[in-house]
Amino acid sequence: MAGAYPQEIQVAFGGNHVLRKRVHEAIDQNPTQSTLFRDISIYMLHRTSQSPSEPAAKKRKLDDSNGAQNGLVASAGLASAAVNAWRSYPGVSFSIPQRKKYTLELVDDKRHGGIRAVGADGSVEFGIPWKQVEQVFCLPVPEKAKRQHNFVVLPVHGDGVNPVPDHAKNSPPEPIVWTFEEATGKNIVEGEDPGPGPMAEAIHHCLIQAGTAKTVIFPDPEQFESAIPQSHRKGEKGYHVKAHRGSKEGYLFFTSVGIVYGFKKPLAFFDFASINSISYTAVLRNTFNLVITTPTAEIEFGMLDQADYSGINEYVQKHGLQDASLAATRRAKKLNVNPPAEKENGTSGAAAAEEGDGETELQKAERMLQDQEDDEEEDYNPGSEGESDGSGEDSEDEEGNGGDEEGEGGEYEEGYEEGYDEGEGEEMEDHEEQY
């Protein structure tokens, strides 16, 4: 009988299972009341984001889930209990948009499919349709004795970096974040993977069914892995870099599709197309700051450990993120504007250019710098001190470069300074490595 009820009723009363049931019973007794309840539901939905008289605490709670609820209104079927879940995971701990345990459901439906959180009373609290998913990440939770992974589902226009379009500013979409804890000891089921793999495969299946061509992104050692040993788990590599955004501590993850900063609000995802350039500031003996420049802002992450500089810089160079002149190319690649033409032998135009005389702007700059250094070497006398070692790095010391810089990222709250050695306020001696 649930299918006979208007979808507006399912959405409007989705947060109160008991009241929704009473409405259904009233319609069953007098079907002519269906139109009245439908009109009431539409009125309620239009007033969802207009409640100025509510207490501040209650209003904040509604605002926290407003963006995710928008996705449900856009896809009313996802909010309906009449649409059955393909996979269900009870007792899942969510942290965004609400910090609470819910049943995680994956709805494998081409029309109304999506991911949703269901409360104890059976009502849908929040969710995102598969077709509105921008990216899905599965990232290890740092510094935990037990292996845990955070799944991060980013909706379109919900990356926390790019401006939200005007039509979504009243209720900007928010990510969904929940924690998966690996089974241990007696909780391990023989023949089953105790890790997050099966859940990630189920999500990937739904994304394919919805025709999104998206996949679940895991950390990749080919992209980045931390040089800092994991004290709580010997021999295991970490994929995060501890960083501060203002006074808030979080973690940076350098993935194959962009840079993620989490896991507290405001969570941010910088895809390659949104990055103009990346630079380094406040370079000290033990720490440095990372500045990501986008078309609309500069976001600075402070107090990154010097041990991870080499790996981060390699990642930045690999994706050409240090070169603002390549930003337009990255955006064109995302939009698939003028993709490289395929040659007869199957190689792309870009690959053929590398084999021939074609060079990228970055390669040309590197070649010109190397040629300049070679010319300087020819001018040296055979026994001259200071002869270049041919490493390709600049050998000039930049005296006075940032001599008085200290912690440009601002003051940090107590408790966030743990894990940082003394001498963070000192400069790097002799600027052995130039940034």
From TrEMBL:
Biased composition range(s): Basic and acidic residues: 361-370
Self-association state and partner proteins as the record states: Interacts with histones H3 and H4.
Entry's family note: Belongs to the RTT106 family.
Region (Disordered): 335-435
GO molecular function: histone binding; nucleosome binding
Pfam families listed in its UniProt record: Rttp106-like_middle
Comp. bias regions, Acidic residues: 371-435
Origin superkingdom: Eukaryota
Organism of derivation: Trematosphaeria pertusa
Known role: Histones H3 and H4 chaperone involved in the nucleosome formation and heterochromatin silencing. Required for the deposition of H3K56ac-carrying H3-H4 complex onto newly-replicated DNA. Plays a role in the transcriptional regulation of the cell-cycle dependent histone genes by creating a repressive structure at the core histone gene promoter.
The protein, known as: Rtt106-domain-containing protein
Entry-linked PANTHER family: FACT COMPLEX SUBUNIT SSRP1, HISTONE CHAPERONE RTT106
Matching InterPro entries: PH-like_dom_sf (IPR011993), RTT106/SPT16-like_middle_dom (IPR013719), RTT106/SSRP1_HistChap/FACT (IPR050454)
Limits of the Histone chaperone RTT106/FACT complex subunit SPT16-like middle domain: 238-326
